[in-house]
Structure formats: C-alpha cells, structure tokens
Amino acid sequence: MIGRNNKILGIALTKGRLENETVNMFEKMGMDVNELRNKGRRLILPISNEEGPPGDGIGQRCGIVAEVILAKAPDVITYVEHGVCDIGIVGKDVIMEHGGRYFEIFDLGFGRCRFSLAGKKGENFYKGHGIKTVATKYPGVARSYFESKGQDVDIIKIEGSVELAPLLNLADGIVDIVETGETLKENGLEVFEEIAEVSARIIVNSVSMKLRKTEIEKFVAGIERVGKA
Ligand code: PRP
C-alpha cells in the first residue's frame, strides 16, 4: 500500500521539537496551515492552498495537496518505511538510532543539536581501568560510537531525562542530544566529547520515490525556494 490516500501526499511529522518550525516552513511555502495551528487533539490534518486550480503541486496554489500525520519520531520512520506515509520529517538522531529502509533526501537545516558524551562537570570519564557505564535514550548510537573508538562500555537504556543517570550514580556518563546546553548546565553536567551533528531531515518511502517522484520533487523544490528566500 502506498499512502493512505493515493490522491494526496501523506507527510508524517515529528510532534514537538520539530513541529513549529515545520509548520512555519509550510506557511512560507504558501500552504494554509490554519488547521495545523488549531489542531486541538487531532492527529491527521490537511494542509491546503485554496486559491487556485488543483493539481499544481505543493505550494503552487493548488487546493488540498497533502495531509500531515503527527507522530512520535520513531513512528514517523515506521509509517514511512511501511508506505502509509510518503514523506517523513524527523531528526537525524532518530534516523541514526533506528536506521531502516527509506531514502533520506534533504537536510532541512533546523532542529540543530549535537549528539554528545556528557557527565558530571570536572570529572574525567576515562579515569581508572574499569568498564564505564553509559546511560542513553540512544543505545545504538552510543554502542557504535564506543565501538568505533575500540572501547568496551556497558550501556543502560533510559527513556527520558537521561541527565539523572550520572547524578544518581547510575552511570559514568550519558550519550544524549544537546541543543542549548541548558539542561546539562543547570544540572551540574558538561559535554566531554561531541559525537555528531543532528538536524531535521526529509525521508521518503522507497516506492513513493518512484511512483510520486514529480510531487516529491515539487515538495522539495518548494522547501528549497523558501530556504533560499
Ligand atoms: C532533550 C535531551 C536533553 C535536552 C537537551 O530532551 O534529551 O534532555 O533535550 O536540550 P538543551 O541542550 O536545550 O537543554 P527532551 O526535551 O527531548 O526530553 P526528554 O529527555 O524527556 O526526552
């Protein structure tokens, strides 16, 4: 199955962190984002442009051309992989952790943050000879980082507020995303090492990429236009 509705593009959008900037971007592209801004608890919203004849493509004065599906980040990947959404907007952090079969086609440039190894301010993460313990929401990213350095670590999966783990002496350090650095600072932690840069990406279902190439290219061209404005 390709998309929920084969007439319009299905765009899975990560709720929360990336949502506002994406809605602002859609607005700049000429889309009517009224429904998205006043969504209440709805999870599927049309994005429309009602000022012209249908069928011209996204941002081209073309009636309802897409629907936005609001989902948690890992689920954005699942919906795109399974082809129930054509396009996904999701952070590179989640892409790095979850992998999957889809095309990553565009760096949106917002939602910028860094994967970092952090821990208690002033401590040396590597001191002593014992195997270090690392807490993280991203065990895959943490494992491959330490493997690439040839270091053996114990990894503990935490679901949120990972900063608690070193404070409670559960772990020697954390691997997490750092945006402003405020959460670390306010909890007496600091970055030890930077692992990778992260930003919002567009991913596309591999079948949609072939069957809806023109619409997807128009969508990306619309984004490039407002990006350059
Ligand atoms: C992320 C991350 C840090 C915080 C970093 O958590 O895990 O805790 O944001 O942001 P900062 O550098 O701007 O302070 P998120 O807000 O996604 O919540 P969570 O920890 O509950 O998942």
Summarize the structure.
This protein is α/β, with parallel strands linked by helices and 229 residues long.
**Helical residues, percent:** 25-40%
Question: What strand line-up does the widest sheet have?
Answer: 2-3-1-4-11-5
> Average pLDDT across residues?
91
Global shape: elongated
Question: How would you describe the overall organization of this protein?
Answer:
With 229 residues, the protein is an alpha/beta fold. It has 2 domains: 9-111 and 199-228, 3-Layer(aba) Sandwich (D-Maltodextrin-Binding Protein, domain 2), CATH 3.40.190.10; 113-197, D-Maltodextrin-Binding Protein, domain 2. It is 31% helix and 28% strand. The protein has a 6-stranded mixed sheet with strand order 2-3-1-4-11-5, sandwiched between helices. It has a 5-stranded mixed sheet with strand order 8-7-9-6-10. It is elongated, with a radius of gyration of 20 Å. The model is unreliable at 52-64 (pLDDT under 50). Bound molecules: 1-O-pyrophosphono-5-O-phosphono-alpha-D-ribofuranose. Residues 160-163, 176-183 line the site of 1-O-pyrophosphono-5-O-phosphono-alpha-D-ribofuranose.
